[in-house]
Amino acid sequence: MKKLVRFIKSLFVRRRPVQVPADKPLRRWDVRCLNSSGVHRMSCVEWGDPTNPRVLICVHGLTRNARDFDDLAQALSSHYRVICPDIVGRGESDWLPDKLAYAIPNYVGDIVQMLHHLDIKEVDWLGTSMGGLIGMGLAAQPKSPIRRLVLNDVGPVITAVSLQRIGAYVGRAPDFPSFEVAEQFIRGVSADFGDLTDAQWRHLTTYSVTQEGSVWKMRYDPGIGDAFRIAPVADVAIWPIYDAIHCPTLVIRGERSDLLLAETVQEMTRRGPRAKAVEIPNVGHAPMLMDAEQIDVVRSFLLTV
Predict the structure, then answer these.
(1) What digits encode the pLDDT tens for the residues 72-114?
(2) Contact by Cβ (8 Å): 281, 120
(3) Which of 59, 97, 274, 285 could link 257 by a cystine bridge, Cβ 3.0 to 4.6 Å?
(4) What's the number of domains the chain is made of?
């Protein structure tokens, strides 16, 4: 029996990172999580002082990854220990055998297990699109660890138009004969990110694709798109979850977003946590928070007493 107990505990022991001095900007480590699909590995990138009790969790969108937040994490790493996970099925994390297990409740469970492993009791949260839905799911829970919540271009209503747009491309990317062709594809499907520099597009592409032999492939499980092709396409509303949130909340909207409508943002400022709202001009879904002005929006909200 003791051996069985030790084995079960071993499934949830965090793989310790190589010890890196606090002045080094980036560390990567893994945590093992469990859901109905089995044990899987979630990879995380960490910035700032690992002993800092003030923690910021940054979670990416549906097909994105932890490295989207490099610029923001560096900018805030003097104030926070910034942890950016690759949600399972993306980036450096494992893929799940059961594709229907790619679901918000399971992602929330993975984050709770990660916080438990790290013995973190309280966090601030920034979530882009899917990452915001995960944040809302966690913030709505009794005794939630979230102190402040930033929702980047997502809210309690997701439009059918945006779901149709996402379903048309997610999991259907071709193999690319070169990195340059991959970058052009990403620029195309992600044009609503805004007027990014060549260096920023290159950064996003570098961590979005991986080379396998003579071709480049997207670095996410195509199976994450299965749910978009079996579920009825209609507006999705989760107002009861939003209304259960009590922490200070900021909602950021891209001016041209088709996923988060202006009228939804207006309603978010009137009910639930009564979010503060900021709109980013000349951007659709979703602002990438890579330039100084967008980062300052987040910084001023999180660091204001």
Answers:
(1) 999 999 999 999 999 999 999 999 999 999 999 999 999 999 9
(2) no
(3) 285
(4) 1
